[in-house]
Amino acid sequence: MVVLVDQNSASASEVLTGALKDFKRATVVGTKTFGKGIVQEILNTGEGTRLKVTYAKYYTPNGNYIHKIGLEPDINVVYDEKLLEQVYDEKKDPQLNKAIEVIKDKLK
User: Fold this and answer.
1) 5 burial class (0-12, 13-18, 19+ CB within 10 angstroms)?
2) What is the rounded distance in angstroms from the CA atom of residue 61 to the CA atom of residue 71?
3) pLDDT confidence of residue 86
């Protein structure tokens, strides 16, 4: 399995990716993830005020805390920002193409 991640991969996607990576069930391709490793809730305290409460922290199965750190991919592949200005073409997507290459290598 290959998981694609980037700086917009956050929260639950990081938890899943961290577990797959720790258990060596997937190769992670892309760039470092966002680093959202806490669970928060906004409580209405009345009179128009609210309170944001952090009540849990995410750790990978190996005990790595990802908040404000993120996860590093196994294979770092940067997505060229110039490609975002064009109509998407999967043939030009370096992260997708690397993921396909990795999967093909695993199938050999």
Assistant:
1) buried
2) 13
3) 86
Residue 2: phi and psi, rounded to 5, are -125, 135
**Alpha carbons 26 and 100: distance in angstroms, whole number:** 13
Q: What is the pLDDT of residue 88?
A: 87
Q: Looking at residue 96, which CATH number applies to its domain?
A: 3.90.226.10
- At residue 8, the 3 state secondary structure works out as coil
Interval 15-56: pLDDT, tens: 999 999 999 999 999 999 999 999 999 999 988 999 999 999
Res 81: pLDDT: 81
What residues are annotated to the active site?
A: 11, 22, 36
Give me the domain span that covers residue 38. 2-107
**Alpha carbon distance 58, 50 (integer Å):** 24
Region 9-16 average pLDDT: 95
How many domains does the chain fold into?
1
Q: Which two tokens stand for residue 85?
A: 């200005």
